[in-house]
Amino acid sequence: MTEITPGLTHTSTLEVTPGLTAEAMGSGDMPVLATPAMVALMENAAMMAVAPHLDRNAATVGGHIDASHLKATPVGATVSARAVLTAVEGRKLTFEIEAREGDTVIGKATHLRFIVDRQKFMDGTK
């Protein structure tokens, strides 16, 4: 594993499709980006920020996310989430994440991920 240090970043993007709406995902009843879809995009950005720096036997898993969904986003819009690794404490990684539609901030989050050994983690699911 290469050294994982604060400052690593990644931006993930998605297009809001009908399947990613609150209405379709069951988290609301309007055809706008669902909060769970925004949160998944945020987690993906965090995961991808450190993925290239992990051994092939390691992965990260989400442990906690404190997210605010600030603005509705319509079908057809493009949303990006930029994660910045802000702290490393052993296997515990802390990220600050901002989601945007263009120049408009639509969500913010603080997210914890943990570095795990893939096999040991999967063995724990049995």
Compact summary:
The protein has 126 residues and is of the alpha+beta class. It has helices spanning 22-25, 35-50, 118-123; strands at 9-15, 58-69, 78-89, 92-101, 104-117.
- Helical proportion? 10-25%
Q: Let me know the average pLDDT.
A: 96
Biggest pleated sheet: 5 strands, antiparallel
Structural Rg: 15 Å
Unreliable segments (pLDDT under 50, ≥5 consecutive)?
none
Number of strands: 5
Termini distance?
Answer: 27 Å
> What best-fitting shape do the alpha-carbon axes yield?
globular
Oligomer status: single chain
Strand percent estimate:
35-45%
Strand order of the largest sheet: 1-3-4-5-2
Secondary-structure element sequence?
Answer: EHHEEEEH
Number of helices: 3
Give structural notes.
By secondary structure, this protein is α+β, with helices and mostly antiparallel strands. The chain is built from three helices and five strands; from the N terminus they run βααββββα. It has helices at about 20-25, 35-50, 120-125; strands at about 10-15, 60-70, 80-90, 90-100, 105-115. Strands 1-3-4-5-2 form a five-stranded antiparallel β-sheet. The longest helix has 16 residues, at about 35-50. The two termini are about 25 Å apart. The model has no long low-confidence stretch (mean pLDDT about 95).
Which short descriptors sum up this protein?
126 residues; alpha+beta; five-stranded antiparallel β-sheet; 3 helices; 21% helix
Write the layout of secondary structure elements.
Blueprint: E1 9-15, H1 22-25, H2 35-50, E2 58-69, E3 78-89, E4 92-101, E5 104-117, H3 118-123
Antiparallel strand pairs: 1-3, 2-5, 3-4, 4-5
